[in-house]
Amino acid sequence: MIKNINKVKEVDVSAVAGNKTLAAAVDRRSIERCKEAIERLGIVHTPVIGAAKGGRRMLLSGQCELTALRELGVKKMDAIEVDVAGDEAAGAKLPLLLISLQGRPGALCEGLLLQEAVGAGVSRSEIQAMLGRSASWVSNRLSLVTRLDGNVYEMVRSGLLEPRCAEEISRLPAEAQFKFAEIALREGLPKSAIESLVSGYRDDSCPDVVKAQIINNPREALKRMADKRRAVNPDRPGRQNASVTPEAMDGHVKSMRFQAIALLRMLSGISPDEAEGCNSALKELETSLSALLTVIRDLFTRVKTEVGNSVG
């Protein structure tokens, strides 16, 4: 696949073409942290570039570093140069190999890189062997790309929308994704809120009128969902006037923290393939935790408001 790898070379920053697929995994905070690290330590992770036909240099790894260097006004950088001239498959497989070594860039970016590799003639079985992933993992990543509306992807590529927010939005019907993304972006909704709204939309018991509100007025829909979660079930007698004691709340919180720590240790020790067997349960847990965080944040906001009013 690789013809030869030369020593690290000094190249013109402006001569290296950025990688729009890798850019989908880079957010503003990552770039700022990278700029700070470069100013203090220099380049920590050396970018990898592919030397293509006609002397063109394309980025294979290090989009965050390249963007940071350009914003800092740096003219020259050290980079590892790989010869991929005349080998389209090599140019598509190298970024996949590099991200598998350096850590996950996010499902959307992985899916886009997989799509490029498949388009260049790399077989799915070869991708599985190269990355050490299962067939279902590859299929899920490719499915994410095909589900995502093209306009939403452009929002990610231009840096307007975080990739992981786009991953959640891809679970909505294709015709509703762009409108929801535009309004969510304008309203400044965090990823946790987007997760809750998308999960609510996909709930089989969600009425059509609520689904329409989720798409057209997500912030109001979020409040409506929070109110519903706080509502007391009328079929359970005695609950309407019941109060939660600090002792009972403290006990529940400590128990949940203990379980969270135990689950964290368990998940950190399993492989991605092992995790696939409990994907459904983990997704349900993620949805429940997102709903819980929404309620907790809303409670903090109301407490802060009430305290402010009493002081005033």
Question: Can you describe what's shown?
Answer:
It is a single chain. The relative contact order is 0.07. The protein has helices spanning 20-23, 28-41, 63-72, 88-102, 107-119, 124-131, 135-147, 150-157, 163-169, 174-187, 191-202, 208-216, 218-230, 246-268, 272-275, 279-311; strands at 9-12, 16-17, 48-51, 57-61, 76-83. The protein is an alpha/beta fold. The protein is globular, with a radius of gyration of 24 Å. Helix 2 crosses helix 3 (63-72), helix 4 runs antiparallel to helix 5 and helix 5 (107-119) packs across helix 7 (135-147). A five-stranded mixed beta sheet has the order 1-5-3-4-2. It has two domains: 9-147, Alpha-Beta Complex (Conserved hypothetical protein from pyrococcus furiosus pfu- 392566-001, ParB domain); 150-232 and 277-311, no CATH class. Strand 3 (48-51) and strand 4 form a beta hairpin. The protein has 16 helices and five strands. The protein starts with 8 loop residues before the first strand and ends with a helix. Helices cover 64% and strands 7% of the residues.
Q: Identify the CATH class of the largest domain.
A: Alpha Beta
Number of helices: 16
Order of helices and strands: EEHHEEHEHHHHHHHHHHHHH
Number of distinct beta strands: 5
User: Overall 3D geometry?
Assistant: globular
State the low-pLDDT regions, or none.
232-242
Instruction: Write the CATH architecture name of the largest domain.
Output: Alpha-Beta Complex
Oligomeric state of this protein: single chain
Distance between the termini: 70 Å
Question: What do we call the CATH topology of the largest domain?
Answer: Conserved hypothetical protein from pyrococcus furiosus pfu- 392566-001, ParB domain
